[in-house]
Amino acid sequence: MEDRTCDDADMTEQRVVADGLFTWPSDEPQLIGSHFPESGVTVFPEATACPKTASRVVEQVLLPRRGTLWSWTIQGFPPKNPPYLGTESPKDFVPYGVGYVQLADEVIVESRLTVNDPAQLSIGMEMELVVIPFTTDPEGREVLTYAFAPVATQQNGAAA
Amino acid sequence: MSDDVAIVGIGIHPFGRHDISGMEQGAIAARAAMADAKVEWSDIQYAFGGSSAAGNADTMVSMLGLTGLPFINVANGCATGGSALISAYNSIKAGAADVVMAIGFDKHPRGAFDPDPASFGLGKWYGDSGLMLTTQFFGMKIQRYMHQHGITRSTLAKVSVKNFANGSLNENAWRRKPMSEDEVLDAAMLSDPLTQYMFCSPGEGGVALVLARADKAKEYTDRPVYLKSAVLRSRPFGSFEVFNSWLSPDRGNSPSVGAAKAAFEMAGVSPKDISFAQVQDTESGAEIMHMAECGLCEDGEQERMIQEGQTNIGGRLPINTDGGCIANGEPIGASGLRQVYESVLQLQGRAGARQVENATTGFTHVYGAPGISACTVLSV
After folding, report:
1. Is A145's Cβ below 8 Å from some Cβ in B?
2. A24 domain residue, yes or no
3. Which of A99, B66, B191, B320 is the most exposed place for a label (fewest CB within 10 A)?
4. Beta carbons of A87 and A79 less than 8 angstroms apart
5. A91 shares a domain with A145
């Protein structure tokens, strides 16, 4: 994958899609969730009440960076804008992967994936969190969000 | 006790794309339902109705008559029609009225739904980053289900083939052209593994039902259909729904499991006893998964059932006999009531070329965001 988020920071102005979703800037970003100690439930992103017990005793947690692919799809057509920030025409649209990744026994999180080729995706494969630019906002800033990359691909990308 | 409520009149405005407003389509359906029950608007003592994108249902009194009746708007996503029906059912059960109308209609813009994240309790980031699409959820739910239960792409396609074939026999359906399995499989891949012709499209249409106390039903029709149960459930912990940024590894049931179980129990009917079912087929995978969630088969059993044509009209358990959402499209407010409309036609022997032989008991199931399910059991 094109892991250019850090290197390009000096050249192109960037912003995160929302504060509080993941630790950034960071060489090893982590998603930020909520853990409810009374029920053991972990959610993403942060929440104020436990969906299982309604408990409001809550702690912030940084979620594991690696997990396994629980399910996936490929977004094959350009989403409507709004709500999507992307503005590509149907002709220029590049399909993107979307999946659920299970992080240990804590939580299964929904995420964009860095690959969009069904042949490179299979349920149970190991995935790792990265931060990627996915579009450019009207002010010309690259917008960053979290995504999961297949661990093997991620290592290849880092080595390149 | 469970025979307390009957459906005595049904009306529909054809589904598809039309030049008139969604509300007018609802009014046309309402007039047709009243004609079917041989009643006037002034006979209707209570009304419940809704649409998602075509206005406040109670505004319709300006088209049907300013009789002063209580008319309550219902807004419950894809279960809007089902919720209107349950409200009508309960109002009769409660003794608040003897003759009640449930109505649903809609008119959506072309293309996939583009809901506002905030209305689902989600941050703006969720839509900004390209996750606010119902299509992704359906793709990921069936992807995992296929992995776990051995459902093939051929079976996904066969559901669409069946529903388009059934729709071709339905003069009120939107998509009336039969399609081959290859055409379905070779269509544009919208959300892997689901192609364009496996998905239904947002559309337009209206449906209205006249309900009455069962002991008075014969005053309106010689073929009343009894609403044996009408149940709505929201999601339990651990279910997998549209627009979830996280799931619990501690997996639980979908709301359809609870709604269907309660509907069958309330009706005193076993899933084995039903003559046909109308289940939510937002896409072909949803029909497959909902069959098991509603207790109509075991997980994985669908593969053989569908390959053998058991869910076709003429099969052991016909499903979506009017073509379902895949052939009718999904005008959200009307969709759940369309299932009931078709079931009444079938139970009254009025379904013409798509009539299920000896139909005595039917089941309907609607599902929608953010994880709601409404089921009914109907019988003659």
Report:
1. yes
2. no
3. B66
4. no
5. yes
Q: How many structural domains compose chain A?
A: 2
- Please answer whether residues A31 and A62 qualify as being in contact, where contact means their C-beta atoms are separated by less than 8 angstroms: yes
In a domain, B149, yes or no: no
Secondary structure of residue B272 in the 3-state scheme: helix
Q: Do A43 and B111 touch (CB under 8 A)?
A: no
Residue A54 has pLDDT above 60, yes or no: yes
With respect to residue B136, please indicate whether it lies within any of the assigned structural domains: no
Note whether residue B147 is domain-resident.
Answer: no
For residue B57, give its domain range.
Answer: 5-110+200-379
Q: Tell me: do A38 and A107 sit in the same domain.
A: no
Q: Residues of A with CB below 8 A from B136's CB?
A: 73, 75, 98
How high is the ipTM of this complex? 0.93
With residue B210 as reference, give the H or E element that holds it.
strand B204-213
Contacts of A32 in chain B (CB under 8 A): none
Chain A residues in contact with B244 by the CB 8 A cut-off are 110
Number of domains in chain B: 1
pLDDT band at B112 (very low <50, low <70, confident <90, very high): confident
A140 falls within a domain: yes
Q: Note whether A84 and A146 are same-domain residues.
A: yes
Specify whether A43 is located in the same domain as A54: yes
Burial class from Cβ neighbours inside 10 Å (0-12, 13-18, 19+) for residue B172 reads buried
**A107/B141 touch (CB, cutoff 8 Å), yes or no:** no
- The answer to whether A29 and A131 are in contact (CB under 8 A) is yes
Domain containing residue B315: CATH number: 3.40.47.10
Taking the CA of residue B204 and the nearest CA in chain A, the distance in Å comes to 20
Quick one: closest CA in A to B115, which residue? Answer: A83
Per-chain mean pLDDT for chain B:
96
Q: Could you report the per-residue pLDDT of B227-257, keeping only the tens digit for each?
A: 999 999 999 999 999 999 999 999 999 999 9
Q: A96-110 pLDDT, tens per residue?
A: 999 999 999 999 999
| Closest CA in chain A for residue B249 | A107
Residue A118 resides in a domain = yes
Predicted confidence at residue A159, as pLDDT, reads 39
Are A98 and B140 inside 8 Å of each other by CB?
yes
pLDDT digits (tens, 9 = 90+) for B141-152: 999 999 999 999
Residue A37 belongs to domain spanning: 31-63
SS (H, E, C) B311-344: CCCCCCCCECCCCHHHHHCECHHHHHHHHHHHHH
- Residue-wise pLDDT tens digits, B54-77: 999 999 999 999 999 999 999 988
Summary mean pLDDT of chain A:
91
Using the Cα atoms of residue A131, residue A132, residue A134 and residue A137 in order, give the sign of their dihedral.
positive
Cβ pair A106:B249 closer than 8 A: yes
Domain membership of residue B343 (yes or no) is yes
> Same structural domain for residues A77 and A151?
yes
d(CA B135, CA B128): 16
Query: What band does B288 get if pLDDT is binned at 50, 70 and 90?
Result: very high
Q: pLDDT tens, A92-149?
A: 999 999 999 999 999 999 999 999 999 999 999 999 999 999 999 999 999 999 999 9
Residues of B whose CB is below 8 A from A43: 246
A110 closest CB neighbour out of B127, B144, B244: B244
